[in-house]
Design goal:
The protein has 262 residues and is an alpha+beta fold. Helix content is 55%, strand content 15%. The protein has 11 helices and 7 strands. Strands 3-4-5 form a 3-stranded antiparallel β-sheet. Strands 1-2 form a two-stranded antiparallel sheet. Strands 6-7 form a two-stranded antiparallel sheet. Helix 2 packs across helix 3.
Protein backbone atom coordinates (compact mmCIF):
# COMPACT_ATOMS: atom_id res chain seq x y z
CA UNK A 1 0.00 0.00 0.00
CA UNK A 2 2.80 2.34 0.96
CA UNK A 3 4.56 1.60 -2.30
CA UNK A 4 1.43 2.56 -4.27
CA UNK A 5 1.09 5.88 -2.44
CA UNK A 6 4.79 6.63 -2.99
CA UNK A 7 4.44 5.82 -6.69
CA UNK A 8 1.40 8.13 -6.96
CA UNK A 9 3.36 10.94 -5.33
CA UNK A 10 6.25 10.48 -7.76
CA UNK A 11 3.82 10.42 -10.69
CA UNK A 12 2.12 13.61 -9.51
CA UNK A 13 5.47 15.34 -9.06
CA UNK A 14 6.53 14.30 -12.56
CA UNK A 15 3.24 15.55 -14.02
CA UNK A 16 3.67 18.89 -12.22
CA UNK A 17 7.23 19.23 -13.47
CA UNK A 18 6.13 18.47 -17.04
CA UNK A 19 3.28 20.99 -16.78
CA UNK A 20 5.68 23.64 -15.45
CA UNK A 21 8.11 22.87 -18.26
CA UNK A 22 5.28 23.18 -20.77
CA UNK A 23 4.30 26.59 -19.43
CA UNK A 24 7.93 27.69 -19.56
CA UNK A 25 8.21 26.58 -23.18
CA UNK A 26 5.00 28.43 -24.07
CA UNK A 27 6.31 31.62 -22.45
CA UNK A 28 9.60 31.24 -24.28
CA UNK A 29 7.75 30.75 -27.58
CA UNK A 30 5.61 33.86 -26.95
CA UNK A 31 8.69 35.91 -26.02
CA UNK A 32 10.42 34.75 -29.19
CA UNK A 33 7.39 35.65 -31.31
CA UNK A 34 7.24 39.13 -29.76
CA UNK A 35 10.96 39.61 -30.29
CA UNK A 36 10.63 38.51 -33.91
CA UNK A 37 7.68 40.87 -34.40
CA UNK A 38 9.72 43.79 -33.06
CA UNK A 39 12.69 42.88 -35.26
CA UNK A 40 10.43 42.61 -38.30
CA UNK A 41 8.71 45.89 -37.45
CA UNK A 42 12.10 47.59 -37.10
CA UNK A 43 13.57 46.07 -40.24
CA UNK A 44 14.68 48.32 -43.10
CA UNK A 45 11.86 46.95 -45.24
CA UNK A 46 9.20 48.25 -42.82
CA UNK A 47 10.87 51.48 -41.67
CA UNK A 48 10.94 54.78 -43.58
CA UNK A 49 14.42 55.72 -44.74
CA UNK A 50 16.50 57.30 -42.00
CA UNK A 51 14.08 56.76 -39.11
CA UNK A 52 16.27 54.24 -37.32
CA UNK A 53 14.81 51.41 -35.25
CA UNK A 54 13.28 51.66 -31.78
CA UNK A 55 16.42 50.61 -29.92
CA UNK A 56 18.55 53.21 -31.71
CA UNK A 57 16.07 56.01 -31.03
CA UNK A 58 15.75 54.97 -27.38
CA UNK A 59 19.55 54.76 -26.96
CA UNK A 60 20.06 58.18 -28.56
CA UNK A 61 17.33 59.61 -26.29
CA UNK A 62 19.11 58.29 -23.19
CA UNK A 63 22.38 59.86 -24.35
CA UNK A 64 20.64 63.19 -24.91
CA UNK A 65 19.23 63.10 -21.38
CA UNK A 66 22.58 62.15 -19.86
CA UNK A 67 25.07 64.17 -21.91
CA UNK A 68 23.39 67.10 -23.69
CA UNK A 69 23.31 70.35 -21.67
CA UNK A 70 19.70 70.75 -20.54
CA UNK A 71 18.88 67.21 -21.63
CA UNK A 72 18.06 66.12 -18.09
CA UNK A 73 15.08 68.49 -18.15
CA UNK A 74 13.47 66.47 -20.94
CA UNK A 75 11.24 63.50 -20.26
CA UNK A 76 12.21 60.16 -21.82
CA UNK A 77 9.60 60.58 -24.57
CA UNK A 78 10.72 64.17 -25.27
CA UNK A 79 14.37 63.09 -25.47
CA UNK A 80 13.40 60.31 -27.89
CA UNK A 81 11.40 62.84 -29.91
CA UNK A 82 14.50 65.02 -30.26
CA UNK A 83 16.58 61.94 -31.13
CA UNK A 84 14.06 60.85 -33.78
CA UNK A 85 14.01 64.32 -35.37
CA UNK A 86 17.81 64.45 -35.35
CA UNK A 87 17.97 61.09 -37.13
CA UNK A 88 15.39 62.14 -39.71
CA UNK A 89 17.24 65.35 -40.55
CA UNK A 90 20.81 64.07 -40.04
CA UNK A 91 21.25 66.85 -37.46
CA UNK A 92 23.69 66.76 -34.55
CA UNK A 93 22.10 68.18 -31.37
CA UNK A 94 25.50 68.14 -29.66
CA UNK A 95 26.85 70.85 -31.98
CA UNK A 96 23.82 73.11 -32.06
CA UNK A 97 22.29 71.86 -35.32
CA UNK A 98 18.96 71.23 -33.62
CA UNK A 99 17.60 72.20 -30.21
CA UNK A 100 14.84 70.62 -28.17
CA UNK A 101 13.25 71.92 -24.98
CA UNK A 102 10.06 71.60 -22.99
CA UNK A 103 7.48 74.37 -23.29
CA UNK A 104 4.04 74.08 -21.76
CA UNK A 105 4.43 70.36 -21.31
CA UNK A 106 5.24 69.86 -25.00
CA UNK A 107 8.53 69.26 -26.83
CA UNK A 108 9.56 72.25 -28.94
CA UNK A 109 12.12 71.70 -31.70
CA UNK A 110 14.19 74.46 -33.32
CA UNK A 111 16.59 74.04 -36.24
CA UNK A 112 19.97 75.65 -35.60
CA UNK A 113 21.43 78.06 -38.14
CA UNK A 114 24.38 75.71 -38.69
CA UNK A 115 22.03 73.02 -39.96
CA UNK A 116 20.16 75.45 -42.25
CA UNK A 117 23.45 76.71 -43.71
CA UNK A 118 24.59 73.12 -44.35
CA UNK A 119 21.32 72.22 -46.05
CA UNK A 120 21.46 75.35 -48.20
CA UNK A 121 25.05 74.88 -49.32
CA UNK A 122 24.29 71.34 -50.41
CA UNK A 123 22.09 72.95 -53.08
CA UNK A 124 24.27 75.93 -53.94
CA UNK A 125 26.43 78.59 -52.30
CA UNK A 126 24.96 81.94 -51.37
CA UNK A 127 25.92 85.48 -50.38
CA UNK A 128 24.26 87.17 -47.42
CA UNK A 129 24.02 90.83 -46.47
CA UNK A 130 22.77 92.22 -43.16
CA UNK A 131 21.28 95.63 -42.44
CA UNK A 132 19.76 97.03 -39.25
CA UNK A 133 16.13 98.11 -39.41
CA UNK A 134 15.58 101.85 -39.15
CA UNK A 135 12.98 103.42 -36.84
CA UNK A 136 10.64 103.76 -39.80
CA UNK A 137 11.09 100.08 -40.74
CA UNK A 138 10.54 99.01 -37.14
CA UNK A 139 7.24 100.88 -37.13
CA UNK A 140 6.25 99.37 -40.48
CA UNK A 141 6.73 95.88 -39.01
CA UNK A 142 4.72 96.76 -35.90
CA UNK A 143 7.78 96.77 -33.65
CA UNK A 144 8.60 99.18 -30.86
CA UNK A 145 11.63 101.44 -30.98
CA UNK A 146 13.22 99.38 -28.16
CA UNK A 147 13.39 96.24 -30.30
CA UNK A 148 16.59 95.17 -32.02
CA UNK A 149 15.90 93.99 -35.55
CA UNK A 150 18.03 93.05 -38.54
CA UNK A 151 17.28 92.24 -42.16
CA UNK A 152 19.11 89.54 -44.08
CA UNK A 153 19.19 89.44 -47.87
CA UNK A 154 20.32 86.18 -49.48
CA UNK A 155 21.42 85.88 -53.08
CA UNK A 156 21.77 82.29 -54.23
CA UNK A 157 24.63 81.59 -56.62
CA UNK A 158 22.19 80.08 -59.11
CA UNK A 159 20.39 83.46 -59.23
CA UNK A 160 23.41 85.42 -60.45
CA UNK A 161 22.51 84.87 -64.09
CA UNK A 162 19.14 86.41 -63.27
CA UNK A 163 20.93 89.49 -61.95
CA UNK A 164 22.80 89.86 -65.25
CA UNK A 165 19.53 89.53 -67.13
CA UNK A 166 17.86 92.33 -65.15
CA UNK A 167 20.90 94.57 -65.67
CA UNK A 168 20.80 93.87 -69.42
CA UNK A 169 17.15 94.96 -69.38
CA UNK A 170 18.09 98.36 -67.93
CA UNK A 171 17.87 97.81 -64.17
CA UNK A 172 20.62 99.17 -61.98
CA UNK A 173 22.90 96.64 -60.33
CA UNK A 174 21.35 97.42 -56.91
CA UNK A 175 17.84 96.98 -58.33
CA UNK A 176 18.79 93.67 -59.96
CA UNK A 177 20.33 92.39 -56.71
CA UNK A 178 17.24 93.38 -54.74
CA UNK A 179 14.92 91.71 -57.26
CA UNK A 180 16.86 88.43 -57.23
CA UNK A 181 17.47 88.23 -53.47
CA UNK A 182 15.28 86.79 -50.74
CA UNK A 183 14.94 88.88 -47.59
CA UNK A 184 13.70 88.24 -44.07
CA UNK A 185 13.98 89.94 -40.71
CA UNK A 186 15.02 88.73 -37.27
CA UNK A 187 13.85 90.41 -34.09
CA UNK A 188 14.87 90.56 -30.45
CA UNK A 189 11.99 92.14 -28.58
CA UNK A 190 12.40 94.42 -25.58
CA UNK A 191 10.88 91.79 -23.27
CA UNK A 192 13.76 89.41 -24.08
CA UNK A 193 16.37 92.01 -23.13
CA UNK A 194 14.68 93.09 -19.90
CA UNK A 195 13.79 90.70 -17.13
CA UNK A 196 12.17 90.95 -13.72
CA UNK A 197 15.44 92.07 -12.15
CA UNK A 198 16.71 94.40 -14.89
CA UNK A 199 18.59 94.07 -18.15
CA UNK A 200 19.26 90.56 -19.47
CA UNK A 201 22.61 89.80 -21.05
CA UNK A 202 22.69 88.23 -24.53
CA UNK A 203 24.10 84.69 -24.95
CA UNK A 204 27.78 84.45 -24.12
CA UNK A 205 29.93 85.74 -26.99
CA UNK A 206 27.00 87.36 -28.79
CA UNK A 207 25.42 90.80 -28.93
CA UNK A 208 21.67 91.29 -29.21
CA UNK A 209 22.20 92.61 -32.73
CA UNK A 210 24.04 89.42 -33.68
CA UNK A 211 21.17 87.36 -32.23
CA UNK A 212 18.75 89.34 -34.41
CA UNK A 213 21.01 88.79 -37.45
CA UNK A 214 21.14 85.04 -36.78
CA UNK A 215 17.35 84.89 -36.63
CA UNK A 216 17.11 86.90 -39.84
CA UNK A 217 19.56 84.50 -41.52
CA UNK A 218 17.51 81.46 -40.47
CA UNK A 219 14.29 83.02 -41.74
CA UNK A 220 15.89 84.03 -45.03
CA UNK A 221 17.42 80.56 -45.54
CA UNK A 222 14.03 78.96 -44.94
CA UNK A 223 12.49 81.25 -47.53
CA UNK A 224 15.29 80.82 -50.08
CA UNK A 225 15.85 77.06 -49.74
CA UNK A 226 13.22 75.41 -47.56
CA UNK A 227 13.75 72.18 -45.66
CA UNK A 228 14.67 68.94 -47.47
CA UNK A 229 12.60 65.84 -46.82
CA UNK A 230 14.18 62.75 -45.21
CA UNK A 231 14.25 61.09 -48.65
CA UNK A 232 16.03 64.11 -50.12
CA UNK A 233 18.55 64.07 -47.28
CA UNK A 234 19.12 60.37 -47.90
CA UNK A 235 19.55 61.01 -51.64
CA UNK A 236 22.31 63.53 -50.93
CA UNK A 237 24.65 60.71 -50.03
CA UNK A 238 26.53 58.33 -52.29
CA UNK A 239 25.49 54.67 -52.45
CA UNK A 240 26.05 53.15 -49.01
CA UNK A 241 26.84 49.61 -47.95
CA UNK A 242 23.52 48.20 -46.72
CA UNK A 243 25.33 46.17 -44.06
CA UNK A 244 26.34 49.33 -42.18
CA UNK A 245 24.43 50.16 -39.02
CA UNK A 246 22.27 53.29 -38.94
CA UNK A 247 24.92 55.20 -36.99
CA UNK A 248 27.54 53.97 -39.42
CA UNK A 249 25.47 55.37 -42.30
CA UNK A 250 25.07 58.70 -40.49
CA UNK A 251 28.83 58.92 -39.84
CA UNK A 252 29.53 58.15 -43.50
CA UNK A 253 27.02 60.78 -44.68
CA UNK A 254 28.34 63.39 -42.28
CA UNK A 255 31.93 62.70 -43.35
CA UNK A 256 30.99 63.12 -47.00
CA UNK A 257 29.25 66.41 -46.26
CA UNK A 258 32.25 67.75 -44.33
CA UNK A 259 34.57 66.81 -47.20
CA UNK A 260 32.26 68.31 -49.82
CA UNK A 261 31.74 64.98 -51.62
CA UNK A 262 28.53 64.72 -53.65
Amino acid sequence: MGEVIEQDVVTNLADSALAELGRGLQQADESARQSLAIRQDDSAANNPVGWGDRSEVAAAGRRIQALLPGGAKLTSNQAMGLAQYAMLTDANPFRGEVYGFEQGGQLKLIDGYKLLVRWAKRQCEFTEKFTTLTAEELSAHGLTAEAVAAKCAILRDDKKEEVRFFVSCGATFAEAIEQSSVTAIGVVRAAEMNGKFGAVNPPNGWSWLQVAQKRALKNALNRAYGMPSPKEINAMSAPIDASLSFHGRVDLIRGAIEQGID
